[in-house]
Amino acid sequence: MYKTLFQRILYPTYETFLCRRKTLRYLADYQRNQWMTPDEIAAIQWAKLRALLIYCYEHVPYYKAQWDRMGIHWQDIRNLDDYRRLPLLTKSEIRTHYDDLIAGPWRGKVLLKATGGSTGEPLRFAYTRENYERRIAVMMRGYAWARADIGRRTLLLWGGDVGDVSRSKRFKDRLYNLAFHRKILNSFYLTRDSMPDYLSQINRYRPEVIVAFVAPLYELARFIKDKSLPRWSPETIVTGAELLHPYQRTLIEEVFCCPVHSTYGCREFMLIAAECSRRGGMHINTDHLVVEVLDDRGAPALSGEVVITDLHNYAMPFIRYVNGDLATLSAEHCPCGRGFPLMQSVNGRKLDTIRTRAGHAVPGAFFPHMFKEVSAVARFQVVQNSLEDLDIIIVKHPEFNDADLTFIQREVTKILGDGIHIKYRFVDDIPLTRSGKQRVTVSHSEA
Fold first, then answer.
1. Domain containing 395 — which CATH number?
2. Average model confidence (pLDDT) across the chain
3. If 260 and its partner were Cys, which of 237, 301, 306, 369 is the partner (CB 3.0–4.6 Å)?
4. Among 401, 431, 375, 138, which Cα is nearest to 270's?
């Protein structure tokens, strides 16, 4: 009953009339798009892409200068093959040419956001209000594929705030979560000792939906199974932020007695792809994004590096942006009838869990979440050599100071406790893995 009340009255009143946002209008469009044929969706994507490219040439100094040097005019881009002639955009280039990537009409009017740096390189970027509203709409559509619609009684085992949070913000967050019919448990504080309390809160709350980081949910499921503990079974589980391995899905489904759905996203674009109830691959949101997978030569491939263009960020357009992930596409079509292509798996986002002798099992996602708050850190890596020792390796900007180090020490100690020796190393560079990725967390400790 509350779900219906929330979706039909409370949320539209809040989102459309009080906040004056167009999220629900965009959601209606995206809901219609999903049932179109692949060719019809491709036509929508191309029309949006062409309009964006024209806009970039006319209003974004970085792209005009770059394309002019290459002898490319927007009129030369007549199809996706022509589009693939455009150069790739990297995090390094965004930092170097940040101002020139802001579109002229949006200067001084943009919204700002920071990535968590899951590949070890935090990034700040600009976007528009419309872009934000569309991202929320796409996320709502994708979660609904897993029956995790807004308004359903939902428990999130997710990352919480870092740093000092004001009392007013905590109060506002409680009201917001109450209205949205959801409860949040901070996954960063999940330890062996705290697991009974986390399980107790889940059992008392009795959620219809659980949305969770993969690693902490898997650790909790292992704990429940090992102890043969009673647990509440939701109707559906949605995982994100980390790669969901088949063995993790199997155990979580066995323990919680419900289907687990995988999603793929990043902070630059929010939801990129998500599984529907058939769970035969993740539907790629191609009516909102252009998602490519390229091999080592830069040619389209089934497996390779992920390259993305957001079709609606007119403030700071990312054209053929390399987000640092590796993925595998599927040649199959989902029997659900949606016209989107499928992503079989994300292969390159590996965030090792950091463990301590005291029983902490902190998902690697904590560190990108924390480091995004420290703008003076260019890149970072966390390496655990034993249960007692942790190295935090930092490539710092010139403005890095003692206050930044104090913040990092405080936040890491809050999560890991005092039973682990932390050594900070400041370096000029952090080498990539053989696959070309920067692993954020590397754990050599015992499981």
1. 3.30.300.30
2. 91
3. 237
4. 138
